[in-house]
Amino acid sequence: MALAFDEFGRPFIILREQEKKTRLRGLDAQKANIASAKAVARILRTSLGPKGMDKMLQSPDGDVIITNDGATILEQMDVDNQIAKLMVELSRSQDYEIGDGTTGVVVMAGALLEQAEKLLERGIHPIRVAEGYEMASKVAFDHLEHISEKFEFSADNIEPLVQTCMTTLSSKIVNRCKRALAEIAVKAVLAVADLERKDVNLDLIKVEGKVGGKLEDTELVYGIIVDKDMSHPQMPKRIEDAKIAILTCPFEPPKPKTKHKVDIDTVEKFQTLREQEQKYFDEMVQKCKDAGATLVICQWGFDDEANHLLMHRNLPAVRWVGGVELELIAIATGGRIVPRFQELSPEKLGKAGLVREKSFGTTKDRMLYIEKCANSRAVTIFIRGGNKMMIEETKRSLHDALCVARNLIRNNSIVYGGGSAEISCSIAVETAADRHPGVEQYAIRSFADALDAVPLALAENSGLSPIDTLTAVKAQQVKESNPHCGIDCNDVGTTDMKEQNVFETLIGKQQQILLATQVVKMILKIDDVISPSEY
């Protein structure tokens, strides 16, 4: 820390405990920040694209996560550096807003910072670099609008949506059955989508997983799956045209709120107590029967006596169903959640065409399927897989695919993938640089170079020679003025991404460029880092 002296030459303290603090200022601070952000970007660079590698992360309590999803990798990495935390937030905001492209946005920000470092070394002021980047990102943003195409789809013609979801899934571990998973994702989104308002509520899509089976067994259920079974083994396993009573009150005799104690000193008193309890249970079960319910789903447990009575009265029941699942069941069957037995009435019951219990494999695992519901606005995607990590990763991949389908319903413009959009933007930004006099021109050119980082990483991960491939594709784009030429990662033999059917959503790409530029501007503007030094 710099010492300050008064007019008599005595040093005095400005910052509290300044001898315990470290301080980086000026160019050193920027370089340190850029270095830490680049380090994060370098980790994610290898997991970009269809041939990208996966990362294996072990949490402190020994859980292992294997994933390709940029946001998940950074969330689980437990980063310590402040600037690296900004990168984590960057990919998280991309994940919340768009759901896909979380790796690309970090790679993009890393490349922008790498280019900025070169400019800072030449003595260009960081604010000028940031302003140049801002101009360039506007150019790129508008250019993406310009090269995008509208993608017409309807509830009958879902092929365009499926193709786009397949692009998302191709970079994941599940890419061997991406066609099936993409179709499941699209059908699920269309089942809950409100096409007039162009809105999709992803909360209505429940993703359940069970270890066992194989990935191809993953299915879409138009209804709800509950990981529970009937409360009594002799209850029917299949109920058609079920009328469902959804209760949040326990099947137990009422308990007073205060502390109490019952003195029983004769057999007669015990008899009356027991008869009283039995009467309570009888009334409860009778109320359910009177309302016309043929299945009871309860949030709490029952006494054995209640269970026995329900069994005798032929009223199948499910207990200990979680609150979220109850809400979904209520949405799907069009029932109301009833808090007290006194309020049960026929119109509050939910209706389902079929409720069945299905068992898996040789284990005692059973699940309850509630299908053919009155209101099919709630669906479940049921994933099978070889092990727990595979299922978790499939859930994350499907989340990406669901988000892409949702974005396309909101805004049906697409750009072509495989790095073609970035290369095209890079060319556009390069030409725009000539129109800007002054120092910003350098920054705009650097932005154009940074845009090439994504196609470069794609080529590198696919085992092609990055620079040759990139220059060849770029030359082809300029020569044919065709913005659809990208990196041929899968060795199909054509660089035209239109033929390869590799699409990405326009809003996803635009969001990537905007978010990356914002974070880079923020990092460039920091010129003084004061941190408590470690002992």
Automatic annotation (TrEMBL):
InterPro entries: Chap_CCT_epsi (IPR012718), Chaperone_TCP-1 (IPR017998), Chaperonin_TCP-1_CS (IPR002194), Cpn60/GroEL/TCP-1 (IPR002423), GroEL-like_apical_dom_sf (IPR027409), GROEL-like_equatorial_sf (IPR027413), TCP-1-like_intermed_sf (IPR027410), TCP-1_chaperonin (IPR053374)
Cellular component GO terms held in the UniProt record: chaperonin-containing T-complex
Keywords assigned: Acetylation, ATP-binding, Chaperone, Cytoplasm, Cytoskeleton, Hydrolase, Isopeptide bond, Nucleotide-binding, Phosphoprotein, Ubl conjugation
UniProt catalytic activity: ATP + H2O = ADP + phosphate + H(+)
CDD domains in the record: TCP1_epsilon
Molecular-function GO term, any one: ATP binding
Pfam families (alphabetical): Cpn60_TCP1
Cell compartment(s), UniProt: Cytoplasm, Cytoskeleton, Microtubule organizing center, Centrosome
Role description: Component of the chaperonin-containing T-complex (TRiC), a molecular chaperone complex that assists the folding of actin, tubulin and other proteins upon ATP hydrolysis. The TRiC complex mediates the folding of WRAP53/TCAB1, thereby regulating telomere maintenance. As part of the TRiC complex may play a role in the assembly of BBSome, a complex involved in ciliogenesis regulating transports vesicles to the cilia.
Matching PANTHER family: CHAPERONIN (PTHR11353)
Subunit-level organization: Heterooligomeric complex of about 850 to 900 kDa that forms two stacked rings, 12 to 16 nm in diameter.
Family as reported in the entry's similarity comment: Belongs to the TCP-1 chaperonin family.
Protein name (database record): T-complex protein 1 subunit epsilon
Organism: Zea mays
